[in-house]
Design goal:
Blueprint: H1 6-18, H2 28-33, H3 45-55, E1 59-62, E2 65-68, H4 70-75, H5 83-93, H6 105-108, H7 116-129, E3 135-137, H8 138-148, H9 156-165, H10 169-172, H11 179-188, E4 194-196, E5 200-203, H12 207-216, H13 228-236, H14 251-254, H15 268-277, H16 280-289, H17 302-305, E6 314-317, E7 327-328, E8 332-333, E9 338-341, H18 343-359, H19 368-386
Antiparallel strand pairs: 1-2, 3-5, 4-5, 6-9, 7-8
Helix pairs in contact: 7-9, 7-12, 18-19
The protein binds zinc ion (2 copies).
């Protein structure tokens, strides 16, 4: 179970904004969120997990009590921001050393910080913007980071130069498993235009969009607070929705407008959903692992109906619209959140969503359960419709 998943972070955000969570704390967080927070008897959930939620800028700590940040407040509102907006913000805010970890004090004494997530994302984007290589091994990114000593703020020319000459992770001769670095690269692969197959990150963007995003990513700078918890709050207060970044339109990647996909109107939460569904490499990975030609909604076997093609199916993402793809730390992107549907059913499902959300005056589903329920309802209607044929 990965606590770095966007939907889990939203659940934790809801908990910390509505309950008191203390260091000595009870099992309240287990009961209220339904998450296991597995830990030895002697360790409280706080002791084992608070570091993750500090790294994700959801909480700071004051006298053994969790203090929710403005980021936690925003994540609790359904449809206020997308997973993409949140992750791009964390990319810009994350530093090494981190205010969430011991060793932060050194920064106040004038040590420069590095921006490892900025580095990783910009490296992946530069590989599209430059040589247009969509597949990058996680170890290649880690090797480049160690070998370059880049801060993450360098420009595209510097990244392209680095790509051409840096040593591989093996050549650097580090023996230790860079587990934390691997995990954080998988963490950002929840962004809609990325996905992870376990050992590589695959980027599905047009070269133009990749360059736009690259140029719009800038590490958040100081002055830094000396106290790590105050620094977390300082950074978190800078979180806004992505409206000042026009790259969230993914102009040349989505190409056609959102309406064509079946939604009756475009919005940023719907765009996030569609970027995932149009992610061509994710599609290849999905059908590679689950070769099928049958629509999950109407059960039409598209191979039987159209024997000259392998299949006529779209991928539909069944989490809330603003969610990214979830990642498992071993296998990469979780394919169980995707279902294959024929294009007609897919359009009708999006229209069904529109109707449901309009009736409930919300921009997005509240949580995974609601998203799955509404998908099941739409599917039920489609199956019912079939009966008179
Ligand atoms: Zn169908
Ligand atoms: Zn869909």
């Amino acid at each position: 179970m990965s606590y770095f998943q966007y939907d889990i972070l939203r659940t934790v955000a809801r908990f910390v904004t509505t309950h008191v969570w203390t260091r000595g704390g009870s099992n309240l967080i287990r009961d209220e969120t339904g998450l296991p927070f597995a830990a030895p008897e002697t360790h409280t959930p706080w002791r084992n997990y608070s570091r993750i939620f500090k790294l994700c800028l959801l909480v700071s700590e004051n006298d053994g009590v969790a203090v929710p940040t403005p980021v936690a407040q925003i994540l609790t509102q359904a449809g206020a921001v997308t997973c993409d907006e949140y992750l791009h913000f964390l990319v810009e805010a994350t530093t090494d050393p981190s205010p969430a970890l011991a060793g932060w004090k050194a920064v106040a004494e004038g040590q420069a910080v590095k921006h490892p997530l900025c580095f990783a994302l910009k490296y992946l984007l530069a590989k599209i913007a430059g040589p247009n290589e969509p597949i990058t091994s996680i170890y290649e990114v880690i090797g480049a980071y160690i070998d370059s000593d880049f801060s993450g703020d360098e420009d595209d020319t510097a990244f392209l130069g680095l790509m051409a000459k840096h040593r591989s992770y093996e050549e650097i001769g580090k023996n230790a498993d860079p587990r934390q670095a691997r995990e954080s690269i998988k963490f950002i692969s929840q962004i809609s235009y990325l996905h992870s197959d376990g050992s590589n990150i695959i980027t599905s963007l047009s070269q133009e969009d990749a360059m736009n995003i690259f140029q719009d990513i800038h590490p958040i700078s100081g002055p830094r607070e000396e106290d790590g918890d105050l620094e977390i709050q300082r950074l978190a207060a800078l979180f806004k929705d992505g409206s000042e970044h026009d790259f969230f339109d993914y102009k040349t990647t989505i190409v056609s407008d959102v309406v064509e996909s079946g939604f009756s109107e475009g919005s940023k939460v719907k765009k996030t959903h569609i970027v995932i569904e149009r992610n061509s490499k994710l599609r290849d990975l999905f059908f590679d692992r689950k070769p099928t030609s049958v629509c999950d909604a109407c059960s039409m076997d598209t191979k039987k109906k159209y024997p000259w093609v392998e299949r006529v199916l779209d991928l539909h993402h069944i989490l809330p619209l603003s969610s990214g793809t979830r990642v498992d730390s071993r296998t990469g992107t979780m394919l169980n959140d995707l279902v294959p549907v024929c294009p007609t059913c897919h359009r009708s499902i999006h229209r069904f969503y529109d109707g449901h959300l309009k009736a409930s005056t919300r921009k997005d589903f509240l949580n995974e359960k609601e998203a799955r329920d509404i998908y099941a309802q739409a599917k039920g209607e489609i199956v019912k419709g079939d009966c008179h044929v």
